[in-house]
Description:
Layout: H1 6-14, E1 44-47, E2 53-58, E3 64-71, H2 85-92, H3 104-108, E4 115-120, E5 125-132, H4 136-148, H5 154-173, H6 177-188, H7 202-207, H8 210-220, E6 226-232, H9 236-246, E7 271-276, E8 284-291, H10 299-310, H11 316-324, E9 328-336, E10 342-350, H12 356-372, H13 377-394, H14 398-412, H15 417-425, H16 430-440, E11 447-452, E12 512-515, E13 521-526, E14 532-540, H17 553-561, H18 570-579, E15 583-588, E16 592-600, H19 604-616, H20 622-639, H21 643-656, H22 669-674, H23 677-687, E17 693-699, H24 703-714, E18 738-742, E19 749-756, H25 765-776, H26 782-790, E20 794-802, E21 809-816, H27 821-837, H28 842-859, H29 863-876, H30 882-891, H31 895-906, E22 912-917, H32 923-929, E23 934-937
Parallel strand pairs: 2-6, 7-11, 13-17, 18-22, 18-23
Antiparallel strand pairs: 1-2, 3-5, 3-6, 4-5, 8-10, 8-11, 9-10, 12-13, 14-16, 14-17, 15-16, 19-21, 19-22, 20-21
Amino acid sequence: MRLFRAALMLGAALLPLAAHAQSAGGESAKPNPPSATLKPLDFTERTLPNGLKVYAIRDTGTSNVSVQVWYNVGSKDDPAGRSGFAHLFEHLMFKATRNLPPETFDRLTEDVGGNNNASTSDDYTEYHETVPANHLQRLLFAEADRMANLVVDPTNFASERDVVKEELRGDFARPYGKLFSAYTAAASYSRHPYARSTIGSIANLDSASIDDVRAFHAVYYRPDNAVLVVSGNFDPAQLNAWVNQYFAPIKRPAGKIPRVTVTEPPRAHATRYTVYEPNTPLPAVVIGYPVPADNDPDNPALTVMNAILSTGESSRLYQSLVYRDQLAAQAQSFVDTKQGPGNLFVFAMMAGGKPVAAGEAALRAQIAKLRDAPVTPEELTEAKNQILTAALLGRETAEGKGRALASSAIIDGDPRTSDRQLAAIQKVTAADVQRVARKYLRDDASATIVYESPEMAPAGAKGDTIAVANTVQVTNLVPPAHIDTPELAPPADRIAPPKAGTPVTAAIPNPNEFRLANGLRVVVVERHALPLLSAALVTTGGGADDPATRAGLADLTADVMTKGTTTRTATQIAREIEALGGSISSDAGWDGSDVAVTIKSDQAGPALAILADVAQHPVFAAEEVERARVQAIDGVSVTMKDPGALSGLVSARAVFGNAPYGHPLSGTPGSLKAITQGDIRQAYAKAWHPDTATLIMVGDITPAQAKSLAESNFAAWTAPAAAIAPAPVVGAYPAPRVIVVDMPDAGQAGVVVARPGIARSDPEYYPASVANAVLGGGYSSRLNSEIRIKRGLAYGASSSLNAHRGPGTLSARTQTKNPTAPETVAIMIEQMKRLGAEPVPAAELETRKAVLIGGFGRASETTGGIASVLGQYVLEGVPLDELKRFVPAVTAVDPAAVQKAAQDVIDPARASVVVVGDAKLFLPALKKAYPQVEVIPASTLDLSKAALK
């Protein structure tokens, strides 16, 4: 699938272990009751005679429009022996229709500055596109055509099946990937088909046939089994006319839609599994408890309970397992509700050296605490505020509004469910939370998985097998008596997509700027559509300034900034700001660091007071430094087991050697152990003062309000007597290298081809950005077209131009099965050479410019997105009027400029090649092309040294 299911996304989110705070704050913050600031979704609805439900949410404040089609079919409907089938089918829906050749959806979306994607869950498969509003008619035409006239041919079928296999291998290659993509589902159900993983298995994918695909489309992809949601800037009358034109003629099939009616029996007794999986850097444990369907009246109380358990750093799991007892590197919970029975999971990834049994006992103790005593009024209010803020953030964009409505319509059968649940959440009491804890979180109903590396297994132990039970009931797919098998029509017979309409001019943010007397720069952008505020204080002084033996110093310093001030402890910071429904984060990049809050705008005063306190008065207590250090080392240990992530770190060392930007931003185990409390205090003193800092506020705030907040919170901050210049970031580059990091039994190979790039201030930045977009920017880029679309070698391939205050990198990357790593390297090198050898055709160039312009436009749709862009401009020394210059600058790039930029910035003659994987499966072939290849065992890799060993 193009997006992971919810559980997989959580699994991926668990992997980075940076302990940046997830809180935000207030002035002696007392929990405030939730404000009634979330308006219900304002939409129209109608049902066509063929059964298609159509919903429309108009928003003239955006220049974009989102089109979403959700089908009421998911992996629970996979036929017998075909697990992963709905997901495979999702991929095929992006291929041909009777009127549209393969990849046309990307031509209609990405090539005009939009985007598209899809996802498969247990219950649904959804397709969504966001495009400039004048392209709405074209997308409606295309969605209707693939609903009615999908073409499946042997070539596309075989290619996409290979792509899905690589996606599956990628899931399993990441640490803990198998736990979340396969094991939790299989352990949670004994009869319901939810037991099968969404992504399936290699064997089941191999057994699927074209006839299966055609039957699946005929049975489930029909108008009366779908909802169409259009949200954004459109004319309602015109929308209705287009929907009538394109969707109304689609016939409703006569047969009934098969529905899963299996009842999952109550779990009669606790179940327990212990598995030993390679590539598991830290032991982990997950405990699942059955919960009812999403539309159950208990859902609001379960949602509040989950927030109390693990939302933010004041949550019970974080405070007990991670912060106080330091048992776990991460501890989380999540509620996975569905059309049918779902689960609440609690998870702990142990800290280095901590026994998994202690983590399981601590998780169970927290569950018992929920059952045994009511939650506090403060916890209840905090959870409700957090849920409300998250809902506001989710509805900032046209796509987000449409998603909230569509998911309710499909999962709950009612588009108003999400609004009703949010209203019900505000009425949840402490007694409600305790009642559902007692009802559902019973020890005798739990399913536990202990997940460890083979090295942890007792002598002779092989671990348990977690597989879909043979009692799970799955039905065969019964095709209708007659199935249409459309073919791509000859060019002369195809109906062409309609032409685009008159463009809607995008509103470019207009920053207001002023300075306080102490030199603090303040930037304000007004956006009053939603009561949200994103505020970030950014300053120079990032990873590029780390001393040679102190890699990770800036990152660790930023992390500890939110862990205590002269007047607040780390726990008080988290509790105060999370009580307001906000979040706070502190982070370091290469060129600078920041502390940021996201909050409902009515809590701006107390939130800014906490941000100011964190920025001006951190104490860097010894115990907090040590706690953050241990967590950072655990995070590095996870990264070192991920072939894709590790290949990126190795390539940076290969490109930069000992120069700035070469070391891991988060440090290495050795460098992190060497950092002292004094080092951190010195790094803070060097970087954080008002004359080098900028306060950015974006959202529901006026310049006058912003000035008042800035003066009241930052006017007393004093600058040092002498300004401290940032360290230079230009260094000599070592000769290119070809490096293999041998990671035996790695499920995939991470492949990177990287070379020195340019600084953000370089005059060639815009031509190089367009050249990079041609190479690997987006689904239709040359790398992805060659590696994924044409050959099915990877789930995706891309390139990036990382331009910093100093010259960064140009890198191409992918993950592929081990034996095909040399082939992907050759393709990358070939495409990099090609860009400098020949001009890019004008038509291709225009589409890649649209990708850049569209991505820039979508970034400016949210308060956080605008704040992030402005923060980068500040750190890179770019004037803020770059916001208005970006589109004209990209538009002006011509083929000659792209070719020259490719010769200067992309030519692979200066590139290093890095492959991280199981070397025995690809090294002989790679040596034929690169006899000079260096082979470094993963067990001896040393990222603290330029030599890597």
